Amino acid sequence: MERNTPPPTSPRSAPNSVCAGRWAPSAPDNSADNSADNSAVEAFNASLKRETLQHAKRWPSARQARLAVFKWITRYNTRRRHSTLDYRSPIDYEQQTIDRVLLAA
């Protein structure tokens, strides 16, 4: 074991957890008893499937499939309106919050 590498303390820190994919969200070790953690991921995956994967049965290459998912995630994280933000995009919400803080200062 290398000097700076912490010892594995859970199945998530084992070497094969890296193989699970760097895009896969990881939950805390105690998430089995916390359904709220899982429900957020399930909602995200359902939106991804509904808005991106449902209408495309096949892509010409794996690269184009990854690009389609990357574009969707970028849009989801920046421009897509979210109900939890009063149907504003994250960029709009962040800008309004910054403006509010600057006005209060």
From TrEMBL:
GO BP term (any one): DNA integration
Pro residues biased stretches: 1-10
Low complexity: compositionally biased ranges: 24-38
Domain Integrase catalytic, first and last residues per copy: 35-90
Positions of region (Disordered): 1-38
Identification of the protein by name: Integrase catalytic domain-containing protein
Lineage: Bacteria, Bacillati, Actinomycetota, Actinomycetes, Streptosporangiales
